[in-house]
From TrEMBL:
Name under which the protein is recorded: 3-oxoacyl-ACP reductase FabG
Statement: the UniProt record of this protein carries the keyword Oxidoreductase: yes
Known EC number: 1.1.1.100
Domain Ketoreductase: 7-186
SMART domains, A to Z: PKS_KR
Segments passing through the bilayer: none
Pfam families: adh_short_C2
Gene Ontology MF term list: 3-oxoacyl-[acyl-carrier-protein] reductase (NADPH) activity
Family: Belongs to the short-chain dehydrogenases/reductases (SDR) family.
PANTHER family linked to this entry: 3-OXOACYL-[ACYL-CARRIER-PROTEIN] REDUCTASE, CHLOROPLASTIC, SHORT-CHAIN DEHYDROGENASES/REDUCTASES FAMILY MEMBER
Entry keyword set: Oxidoreductase
InterPro entries assigned to the protein according to its UniProt record, in alphabetical order: KR_dom, NAD(P)-bd_dom_sf, Sc_DH/Rdtase_CS, SDR_fam
Length: 242
């Protein structure tokens, strides 16, 4: 079953990890996808030249997000789905964290998601339909030591999602969020072994998640299967911190 047949999606941070898995899953289900990333690389070739475009995009810059959305409109004629996924980490204890590292993480995650949500919603309101999926994190639910910047940004995304959902529901636009837990990706695989082991010990299902398992939830939220859902947050955590 092609759940996104004929629809056009934009995915930020879509050149690797969870973002790439989401883009691949959307293409598999019939969507045409525009990926935005600081380093798009071979993403367009991987996804297929006929059904995708890859654009260099700094999500902290409104002009870059605007150009990304314009690519969807000019190349594929619509904007049906927006996935705000781009993210970075700059981990350190609060005592040692620099102001620059705090500001950069907040800018990429929270400001970037705000840019993507508000600019996509403006286009979708005109069409009276559209789905926005924001990628938060379990860190935004419980707070993680060494991640005051990341936890604050990811918690902020939940508040942003709920507020935006209330503003746009009457215009046919749905806004939902996903909170992944420990997912096997380039970012998490770079963790020191003792950190990985500690996180694994907290997961009732006793394994890390795969990017495709987050992508499948994004597919659900982006499709009509979730047609009566907005302002929700779905956890993909293997039961960690439930």
């Amino acid at each position: 079953m092609s759940l996104l047949e004929g629809r056009v999606a934009v995915v930020t941070g879509g050149a690797q990890g969870i973002g790439l898995a989401i883009a691949e899953t959307f293409v598999l289900h019939g969507a045409r996808v525009v990926v935005g990333d600081l380093n798009p690389g071979d993403t367009q070739r991987i996804l297929g030249d006929e059904v995708s475009r890859a654009v260099r995009c700094d999500v902290t810059q409104a002009t870059d997000i605007g150009a990304l959305l314009d690519t969807a409109l000019t190349e594929f004629g619509a904007l049906d789905i927006m996935v705000n996924n781009a993210g970075i980490t700059r981990d350190a204890s609060m005592r040692k964290m620099s102001e620059e590292d705090f500001d950069e993480v907040i800018a990429v995650h929270l400001k970037g998601t705000w840019h993507g949500t508000r600019m996509a919603a403006a286009i979708m309101r005109e069409a009276r339909r559209g789905n926005i999926v924001n990628i938060s994190s379990l860190s935004g639910k419980v707070g993680m030591a060494g991640q005051t910047n990341y936890s604050a940004a990811k918690a902020g995304i939940i508040g942003l999602t709920k507020a935006a959902a209330k503003e746009t529901a009457g215009h046919g636009v749905r806004v939902n969020a996903i909170q992944p837990g420990l997912i096997r990706s380039p970012m998490t695989l770079a963790m020191p072994e003792h950190v990985w082991t500690q996180k694994m010990s907290e997961i009732p299902m006793s394994r890390a998640g795969e990017p495709t398992e987050v992508a499948n939830v994004a597919l659900f939220l982006a499709s009509d299967l979730s047609s009566y859902m907005t302002g929700t947050t779905l956890e993909v955590t293997g039961g960690r911190f439930m």
